[in-house]
Amino acid sequence: MRAVVCAFVVCCSAVAAAPPPKPAAEEANSVSLFDRTTLVGWDNGSRPATGWRMADGVLQGQADSSPLLSGWSWGDVELSFRWRAGRGTKWRFVLRGLPTGESLGEVRLSTGATSAANASQETGRPSRLDIEVPSTADGWQATVVKRRGDRLEVTSGRSSAALTIGAARFALELSLSGGDGSLADLRAVEPAGDPLYNGKDLGGWWTPGNLDSWRPEPDGIVCVNNNGNYLRTEREYANFTLSFGYKMARGGNSGIGIRTAREGWPSGDGMELQMLDETDGTPITRHSTMAIYGNLEPLARADRSQEWNRVVIKAEGYMISAWVNGVLVQHANTSELPELRRRNLKGWIGLQDHGARTEFRDLRVLAAPDGLGLPAWQTPRSQDGSQLVLERLMNPERLAIADGFGSGAVAGHAQGKDERVLAELAGPAAVVVFSRSNQAGQLAFYFDGESEPRLQCPADKLHEHLPFVGQDVQPLLTYLPFRRSLRVTVRDVGPKRVDYRLDYVTFPASVSLEDFGDVERGLCVARGLLPALSYRNEQLGWGTHREADPLPRAGLENQKVDEQDRVKFVDLKGPGIVEWTKLIAAPSLLNDDDLWLEVTVDGESEPAIAAPVRYFFPGLAGGNYPNYAVLNRNGWTNMLPLPYRSRLTIAVANHGRRPVQPVGLQVSYQPLEDANDPRLARRLRGLFETEAGSSAERSWVKTSGSGRLIGLVTQCAKKMAGVDSLTIDGRPQDGWHSPDWQSLLGIGAGTADERHSLSGRQGEFQWRFFLLAPPEFRDSLELRATDGPPLGNRLALFLLDAR
Question: How far apart are CA 395 and CA 673, in angstroms?
């Protein structure tokens, strides 16, 4: 027979005589758990929340609203809030225990004629506490929930009761039963934790920079700006709540590094929570205070220039949150962000010297157990079109998925004052590349059959009105979605002809598309994507990438490759994906075709890729440049994916007449557990052709099979053939005729050196990576050359269906 223990507590004069609980808002680390206008921090799980509205910091819901789950968990904590419930309505607060998500207990709040509290604890079942309080004139009730150890105490009005819930951490699930309700001023305060600073010296801290830049004082640490790098904790932290006060000089810049490998850099390997002294009214950007530097702008600003500010940063699994002066200014599930999910989940905490005097005091950390939090936090959410397409630039492994997406291109020209139609496109689709030969004219965009243009702007201002991906104004990488149709016109071009090319991607009907609107309000592109894409573009331009990411490495260093010999550098057993490939050799090897790269997958007898190494790193002979595919840092690095199911080997072959040394090759790879992972549906394959072996056919590229063309690198000549046509599965495609390559590459006519995010011409080479809208084929693809001039050597790169 199941044992039952019930406790009934009616709190009258005894409770009234006791001093009221101290409001959590008076605590230094008290933080708001609500954004002013969104459900950020609460909309967790596989499906978006429904039935809720957040208005001016007040959460409003109804009986059929889906449960809301917090993106935070706590051990000891004090929660305070105000609530209101209609007649017959109960607020339900379920404590979801980590790591399983099972209920540790439940609190139900309602209004009635009297004060009453009923605590029930039944063996084998979650505890439950029902509290009823008398109605008030305005309907609002105040409640405080305290958790200490295994005891949970709830006080609401004149009623109070306690439960035993065990020692596990918990997240909070909110729901309503019976009717409508509102919740406001939900705040939390945790114990401050252990001091990070001992009050006398920098014991427990280190820096690869100048330690003298950091001055210990009795009440804190002061950065005096003397090339101090990051002052880093010796101890590494995974999950924690960090709190501190800071004061910064006018216009100053600093940051808090978290979860960074010992020799890593936060903004690329761990994370940096930005600190920037700005005047009131400065627009929020990816550099504002508590931005996840470069990748995710904050939700709001609450810092005070040149005054003391209080910061709380909470990290648990992939959840990252920050508060400034008690206001929620940052929250993200970084597993949903294409760049941040690649970062380390454990590492040092650091204070940045970025050229400004900054004072830090009351530095404390409350460590939490390792783990990824609740299962619901890790459940993949469906992604909209912007996420599915634009992530290809940061994680091109997505191109190996047979996702049902298609692509196309359309070309047009205009001249004179009259309006001319450049494109008539059918949806659901999105324009992702917009190229033009000059900036003249007025553009107009008509969406989904509308009679009036939703967007009109001068051609030279197009990047200010469309989502701006990367840094190139021409060709412009963007994301312009439409559900049914898009009509693009141009007028007032002037006497000189202007040529246009628009690349677009088509969607399956199941993909969610946001309507294009005011780009300044972030419509049609998911939060965080544009800053992350811009930052990634900059990083590769500076020559930095995921040097210290948590993935394993494989390869060899300082090898000798004799003439007419080959050396195997990498041998991986699958399944898995090589995320990037780095070749370390003398720069002079970019000048000839002596050194080759050979990639073999899944035990095939012939290499999937075999070509001179310089074709893998176009444009790097001129140094780094902002792009999404290649960079040079301690070696030439290519970011294209190499999926494999059972085995992958990479060898370097020397086709020259003298030994080459030293040679190194390193890969970063992601081991996978499931050989049927959708990212393994296709293999990266290369088709290298020489001028001597192919000019008679007049084909730049010709292949059979099923897959996508994702890159083409050609060796230039003073006179060389252009592109005549593209034929896919026997059908000619629009938009591909480019006699001088200008429209295809998006570069100026006759330009010798011009390098862009996905295309360019530099030295002996010109190239185009089709990462956003790759031509898709089921049976065959042929890119034919114009008649006359010769075809140079070239490498075409495909993601083809696995054999």
Answer: 19
